[in-house]
């Protein structure tokens, strides 16, 4: 099992990178679980499968809060696992998709969250690849919700906040002793040679391996604006070709680790 988590500041292109990775890796194996861990839940739209999503984990958690007092002696983890398999996992042609979503009600969800983490860890063992489009920012690192990831891909743009978030993720991983095999960097929407030079210098200074520099592409931006899936991206575009190379690298790294 190989777990790849895509992280970074909101608006840098995390979901684009996640969706392209899912598309490319699922061409080589059908044992892929895509996880949308961002409460904004844009991954299904980027993959073109939003109509196939029936329930999010947030909705399952809400149902659990209401139903757990009525379960009696029933094993709560088994109940949750059954609900996730039956209602929350979207079985797409080449991969499965799990959308985290957000809870709607009030109150403490610590018990439900703890159960869900345990269920998810068991569920993930059934897949060769798990690709997670994480929540924007840093909180999931401090909560250690992706501590089982093998590889972190940080996506940044040229904004000061984007670069600051990338730097802080690297620092947090060290401070919290999160033993990822590798932390990578992808620079997105880079529009000039000077900007690319700055990104390369930043990656070198921070000790981050730069996987790809994706240029600004107006056609990709228009596809995103129209809410169309990444499969609509021109196969000859530099963004498409460079992300295919990234996916092949991740496949090779995973194969060597086995």
From TrEMBL:
<dbReference type="InterPro" id="IPR002586">
    <property type="entry name" value="CobQ/CobB/MinD/ParA_Nub-bd_dom"/>
</dbReference>
<dbReference type="GO" id="GO:0009898">
    <property type="term" value="C:cytoplasmic side of plasma membrane"/>
</dbReference>
<dbReference type="GO" id="GO:0051782">
    <property type="term" value="P:negative regulation of cell division"/>
</dbReference>
<dbReference type="GO" id="GO:0016887">
    <property type="term" value="F:ATP hydrolysis activity"/>
</dbReference>
<dbReference type="GO" id="GO:0005829">
    <property type="term" value="C:cytosol"/>
</dbReference>
<dbReference type="InterPro" id="IPR050625">
    <property type="entry name" value="ParA/MinD_ATPase"/>
</dbReference>
<dbReference type="Pfam" id="PF01656">
    <property type="entry name" value="CbiA"/>
</dbReference>
<dbReference type="InterPro" id="IPR027417">
    <property type="entry name" value="P-loop_NTPase"/>
</dbReference>
<protein>
    <submittedName>
        <fullName>CODH nickel-insertion accessory protein (CooC-1)</fullName>
    </submittedName>
</protein>
<dbReference type="InterPro" id="IPR014433">
    <property type="entry name" value="CooC"/>
</dbReference>
<dbReference type="GO" id="GO:0005524">
    <property type="term" value="F:ATP binding"/>
</dbReference>
<feature type="domain" description="CobQ/CobB/MinD/ParA nucleotide binding">
    <location>
        <begin position="4"/>
        <end position="230"/>
    </location>
</feature>
């Amino acid at each position: 099992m190989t777990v790849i988590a895509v992280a970074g500041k909101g608006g840098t292109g995390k979901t684009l990178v996640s969706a392209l990775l899912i598309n490319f890796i699922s061409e080589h194996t059908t044992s892929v679980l895509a996880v949308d861990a961002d409460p904004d839940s844009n991954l299904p739209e980027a993959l073109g499968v939003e109509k196939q999503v029936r329930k999010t984990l947030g909705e399952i958690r809400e149902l659990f809060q209401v139903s757990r007092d009525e379960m009696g002696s029933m094993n709560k983890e088994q109940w949750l696992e059954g609900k996730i398999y039956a209602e929350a996992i979207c079985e797409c042609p080449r991969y499965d998709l799990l959308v985290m979503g957000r809870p709607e009600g009030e109150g403490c969800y610590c018990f439900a969250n703890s159960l869900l983490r345990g269920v998810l860890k068991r569920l993930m063992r059934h897949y060769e690849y798990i690709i997670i489009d994480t929540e924007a920012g840093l909180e999931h690192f401090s909560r250690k919700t992706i501590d089982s990831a093998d590889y972190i891909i940080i996506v940044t743009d040229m904004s000061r906040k984007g670069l600051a978030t990338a730097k802080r993720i690297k620092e947090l991983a060290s401070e919290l002793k999160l033993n990822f095999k590798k932390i990578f960097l992808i620079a997105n929407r880079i529009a000039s040679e000077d900007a690319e030079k700055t990104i390369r210098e930043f990656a070198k200074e921070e000790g981050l391996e730069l996987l790809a520099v994706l240029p600004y592409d107006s056609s990709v931006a228009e596809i995103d604006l129209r809410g169309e899936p990444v499969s609509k991206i021109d196969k000859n575009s530099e963004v498409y070709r460079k992300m295919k190379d990234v996916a092949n690298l991740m496949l090779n790294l995973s194969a060597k680790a086995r």
